[in-house]
TrEMBL record:
The lineage of its organism: Bacteria, Pseudomonadati, Pseudomonadota, Gammaproteobacteria, Alteromonadales. It comes from Idiomarina seosinensis. It catalyses: 2 GTP = 3',3'-c-di-GMP + 2 diphosphate. Its cofactor is Mg(2+). SMART domains: GAF, GGDEF. InterPro entries: Diguanylate_Cyclase, GAF, GAF-like_dom_sf, GGDEF_dom, Nucleotide_cyclase, Rev_trsase/Diguanyl_cyclase. Signal peptide: none annotated. Residues 176-229, 294-321 form a coiled coil. Its EC number is 2.7.7.65. This is diguanylate cyclase. Keywords: Coiled coil. It holds the Pfam family GGDEF.
């Protein structure tokens, strides 16, 4: 076998140093191609027939071949060297766990208890093999190795030293890659948690529709839009009639179910992208709609009133029995271009509330528009 001369060693060291710089600065995709280049470079340098990287699972019970370089026509084995267990190659796994290396000049000299390994080396026509562990923070992550197929090779101190350099480089890069993956995963979890928190902050827990806070935000954006586009905006306040007697007679849990049914019914009807339904508090709901006329809003309010009664939820303790009904107060306004937004919002809510009070006074299950 060809011995290295000083030129070989110098040019290999230079190449390794360049690849190392690239690995340090590489994105995950480039890390893969750099690793492939590193093992190819080592394969050429040591005049090997096959070079590879394997990664262990955290328990060092299984390993996968992640990168492979083969000389000329030698057969590649990366596909059949996946998910290899410690039970398949016990001698090898033990050597790697205990010594972080496995160096065999002649596979014929393997001890008897390495019969599985011997059979595997025969299958791959391997005569000599060297594997050096990828170790980061005293943890064995995998190994980089070389096979000699054409002829046996006595691994020199120089081979071992240079492959150890390669393994240090790859271990650091693998460690960095794992940290990067963990960071990406943590970031994904944080974003998911943030989205959930955001949804919770603007969602009513019982009915899953928007809450009061979301309503305030919506009113502000809709008033701004109405001002800009010179359109009108209507607010409806919808209150379940005699809900206290309902709770007292049917129980709080059934009361909760009524709130959910009413919320769902309102949401099903208010389906335009500019429609908005929120739980205003207790047994009261609010609807915001962009509309050109009070008449259109009144028509929608009538639809809602009928739809709730049509749910036919029994309510024996109501003056509007036999079913659960609602009273609705509404107000429509076309904000002028110079109207003050907080005042406009206050006007919308106050007037809708006055309408609701009037509807309650006038016997409930009716609409009063101001
Ligand atoms: N089940 C249930 N009840 C609620 C919830 N929030 C508020 N309530 C009840 O809603 C009822 C509201 O009662 P009142 O304000 O007296 O109104 P009402 O009985 O509906 O009378 P009118 O509105 O005048 O027709 C109270 O009994 C509250 O306990 C809730 O989340 N679940």
């Amino acid at each position: 076998m060809k011995a290295h001369n000083n030129n070989d060693s110098d040019s290999f060291d230079q190449l390794l140093s360049q690849l190392s710089t690239r690995l340090i600065n590489s994105e995950p995709d480039e890390t893969q191609s750099c690793t492939a280049e590193v093992i190819a470079a080592f394969g050429h340098y040591v005049n090997a027939d096959r070079c590879y990287v394997f990664e262990f699972d955290p328990e060092i019970q299984r390993m996968n071949n992640t990168h492979e370089w083969v000389r000329n026509d030698f057969s590649a084995h990366i596909d059949d060297l996946q998910n290899i267990s410690a039970g398949d190659l016990p001698f090898f796994f033990n050597q790697m766990r205990n010594n972080f290396r496995f160096i065999i000049d002649d596979v014929e000299t393997l001890p008897k208890d390495a019969s599985n390994e011997y059979a595997e080396f025969q299958r791959e026509s391997i005569k000599s093999v060297i594997c050096i562990g990828l170790v980061a923070h005293q943890k064995l992550l995998g190994f980089v190795g070389c096979d000699m197929i054409r002829q046996k090779h006595r691994w020199t101190q120089e081979d071992i030293q240079r492959l150890s350099l390669v393994s240090d480089m790859l271990a650091n890069s693998l460690e960095r890659q794992n940290t990067y993956q963990k960071l990406i995963e943590t970031q994904r979890q944080l974003e998911e948690a943030n989205l959930k928190l955001q949804a919770q902050a603007t969602q009513d827990g019982l009915t899953a529709i928007a809450n009061r806070r979301a309503l305030d935000e919506k009113l502000e954006s809709e008033v701004k839009r109405a001002k800009r586009q010179r359109t009108g905006i209507a607010v409806l306040l919808i209150d379940i009639d005699h809900f206290k007697p309902y709770n007292d007679y049917y129980g709080h849990l059934k009361g909760d179910a009524v709130l959910r049914s009413v919320a769902e019914c309102l949401s099903n009807i208010m389906q335009r992208s500019t429609d908005f339904v929120a739980r205003y508090g207790g047994e009261e709901f609010a609807v915001v709609m962009s509309t050109d006329s009070a008449w259109q809003a009144l028509r929608k309010a009538n639809e809602l009133l009928d739809a709730i009664e049509s749910l036919e939820i029994e309510h024996k303790k109501s003056s509007t029995e036999p079913y659960v009904t609602v009273s609705i107060g509404g107000y429509f306004e076309q904000p002028s271009i110079d109207s003050d937004i907080p005042n406009a919002i206050k006007r919308l809510l106050d007037n809708a509330d006055k309408g609701l009070y009037q509807a309650k006074s006038d016997g409930r299950n009716c609409i009063r528009f101001r």
